[in-house]
Amino acid sequence: MGRGRQKAKHTKVARELKYFSPNTDYNALERELTGSQHDDYSDEASKWAEYAAEDDDAYVTGDEQREQRA
After folding, report:
1. Alpha-carbon torsion 18, 23, 27, 32, what sign?
2. Which residues fall within 8 angstroms of residue 60, CB to CB, at 6 or more apart?
3. Against a cut of 0.90, is the pTM above it?
4. CA-only gyration radius of the chain, Å
5. What is the pLDDT of residue 70?
6. In the chain, which residues have pLDDT < 50?
7. CA-to-CA distance for 64 and 27, rounded, in angstroms?
8. How much is the pLDDT for 6?
9. What whole-number distance in Å separates Cα of residue 53 and Cα of residue 59?
10. 66: helix, strand or coil
């Protein structure tokens, strides 16, 4: 008996989602896509590069082990 009510609710929600169109702030979107955030990522990448350079000495691959033994 409750299946009809449940299906009606799902249909109502689906219809609302289908025809929902939020107001889009195109200026904010443009700032986000073309903004200076790209520079922030390059700063973060340089930090990780420093960590990677420090860790390179800590790990020895199989080839390097064979070279050290020879």
Report:
1. negative
2. 68
3. no
4. 28
5. 62
6. none
7. 53
8. 92
9. 11
10. helix
